[in-house]
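Notes to self after the Tuesday call (sharing in case useful).
The group wants a holo model before anyone commits to mutagenesis around the pocket. I volunteered. Ligand is GLP. Logging inputs and output together so the record is complete.
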Amino acid sequence: MQLFIEKDYLAMSKKAAQIFADEIRKKPNLVLGLATGSTPMGTYEELIRMHKEEGLDFSQVVSFNLDEYYGLTPDNPQSYNYFMFENLFNKINIKRENIHIPDGTVKDVENYCKEYDIQIEKFGGIDIQLLGIGVNGHIGFNEPADELVVGTHLTDLTEDTIKANSRFFESIDQVPTKAITMGLGSIMKAKKILLLANGKNKAPIIAKLIKGGVVTTQNPASFLLIHPDSTIIIDEEAASEL
Ligand code: GLP
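Result:
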């Protein structure tokens, strides 16, 4: 695991975008694993700038998103489908048919999730996976638990996550209680993983992850410590308890 501590959010975002851009230039049909949340927004802005000003080409890129709230339609402004089109896809030249985001409205969830993992494999697996981290260590929506699920699956969100994510909703009762998420196995199969964290509220979990030096299902992000090619990029605030 490689750790980079950058001065601030902007520097963290630029560093992450640069890594993505270098990989896309090396392999134009790169398979990206993408994340939502406030953390990756700056990275997406920088990638959009690189597309517009430096001709960074997404025409052959394939993407798979990590997760989606269960019960939200893609046109719901709170859905991760909506987020991705607003914050990235509508502003770059990725092809619609190359975009994969879990559908929060499917009925046969079990088969749908199996098929999602099959699709990832069909494209040769994820080349580079972007991750944020929840204040409780969740990645995607893999919440701390005694056991973690390997494949893509439907999961219950914890109280902590519902509370943390309620800031994007009008009230806490509007936050969905379930989500479809790639599993720990789907994430760990990515050839390269990039986890970003910024701000003081992420300092305790970052300290626990890096100083702890242990792998535990109670901190799903800790599995990055044993991934062969994982990079953690954080800003000085998130590094403040190291
Ligand atoms: C959400 C998402 C995660 C994200 C995390 C942190 O619940 N499911 O993929 O990394 O919480 O969000 P933020 O970046 O807004 O702090």
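Two things stood out.
Residues 35-39, 66-67, 132-134, 140-141, 161, 165 surround GLP (CB under 6 Å).
The mean pLDDT is 97.
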